Amino acid sequence: MRIQLDWTDPMTGGPRRPQYETPVAFGQEFSQLPSELNGQRVSRLILADPALSPYHGVLKVNTLGELAIALRPDATAGVNGQPYTGETVTLQTGDRLQLGALELTVTMLSAPDAAEAEPARAWGVTVAPAGQSPPVAGLASQAAAGAAPSPGMPCDRLVGFLFPRRCGRTSREHCPHCQGGEIDDDPYFLASERSIYPNYGYYGGSSWGSEYTEDLTPAEAQPGEASNYDFTEADAAAFAVTSTDFEQDLDAS
Amino acid sequence: MSQETWTIYALGGGFGHLQRALALARQATRQQHVHLLVNSRYWPWVQPHLTALFDPAARANLQVSWRSPDLGRAATRAWIEHSLLTAPGDRLIVDTFPRGLVGELATLLSRLPIPRILVHRDLNPDYVRVQNLRRFVTRCYDQILIPGEGSQVPFADLPTAQLLAPWLLYAAAELPSVAIARSRLGFAHDPRPLAIVLAAGRADELTTYGQLLATLHDHYPQLCWCCLAPNLPPDCPSALWRSLYPALAVLPAATLVVGGGGYHTVYECQALNRPLIALPRSRLYDRQQARLQRQSDHQPITIVRSLAETLTAVEHQLCTGNAVRSPETWQFTSGIAAAVAAIRVL
Hints:
The structure holds 2 protein chains of 2 kinds. Chain A contains 6 helices and 16 strands. Chain A is of the alpha+beta class. Chain A has 2 domains: 110 residues, Tumour Suppressor Smad4; 128 residues, no CATH class. About 17% of the residues of chain A have low confidence. Chain B is globular, with a radius of gyration of 20 Å.
């Protein structure tokens, strides 16, 4: 989910209206904010207010698809003037967050608007949906559409399953992964598309992420079949040396 | 004045090869003739600026031969062979590609009985391995100069290697003040700190920089934004585009630089101690990511991979105040003078 936060910069007195992709970690210290949560890339918001903790909390989408704020232990905040601590509170567009002396107004950008206004999509940023594991085919389409590269910009989509890496293509032509943003429901693709399972393999504090196993184990599977994780063509490509490409391009650098 | 002629082979895309060659030529033409062989797409745009880069006497000692990169491999190979066999000069200086951009030097070097110097910018280790370049360089080059890239590049441990400071077009004393640089860009009367987007690299990457500038301009109006590019990037507001060369001549005006991880972007920001938000680009031979990671220990660099991360990085620079400081003085040493001295005594 893409959100916009509006507040007045206390240093300059000017308005600030940055947009972020959730989850958004916020606090005083850039170095203390996580760059990833449950395998998702995190937007980091620095708020230079002495009342805030180095890592104060996070804005994220909960399992119901709602925007929520979660605070770190001992951190405090207010929502629409009401102080709260501890529990997770859901937010709506227009809600006002009080963080120290700052007041931030939240705007959730709806999906169609966000797709038009959000340059990050045009740049091929892969945005793994937070929280639950929705139906596989729908999520695959969503992930692929968000990952299509724009001219000149390396595709940021993760390809490969056992050895995921950034795609890096600057053109959709001949791309076997998102094919210009259109993906069919080929079972092989779905089983080898790591971005569909953002939490797979990440330790969540008490257990390892296992959506892959749960989503792809067929009802009629025999014991052991669910562990058949593929080494994909994209994995193999990660180890290939393209020596034949050298000394061919007169525009290379 | 010596009548020596130095031939500089600087084929390769983008600005880097051309600009390193011009930096060397600018110093060398004060005492000898220099013949440049280049094929950068940017040369036709750079050419009119030579009169500002070279004083008249030095300019008279400079000859530039250019062919388009669209010429084709066979014709390019024939052009280089003809140039070097008919007029090799007294020193051959080869930038980056020991075997030539399309391998045309591999059999040619042994037919040139003159001192050969390799200018060693970083190089893809896969290429070094599959072409057995260490052996080739050891056998075919008398000297290896490594301007700025340090000891982690593939040939740095060879006995003829010499580490130098980065090669920049200007010495520190030649750079304009912040006020003059802002004036050259047309922002003399704008009180806001100035952030510059350096749209170097490949022509097809201009779109990204145009989108980037337009977004940054909308998000952070407390900064004055401008984009340096040879041509107006798509989506870039034309009022914010400047077609100036070289960038170093106006870079003192910047309090923040956004660009790629190419040679000059990185080392010019280092020289002026300007914070750089860098999007490493994928190249066949250059390793921008490695350069940025290596240099981030020595200069303020934030490596980003997307527009979202770029916004976060600018946000961080604003919060820390780094994006609004503009030191009025700088001290750096270009490796050019040492290089000319080293080549001359060879």
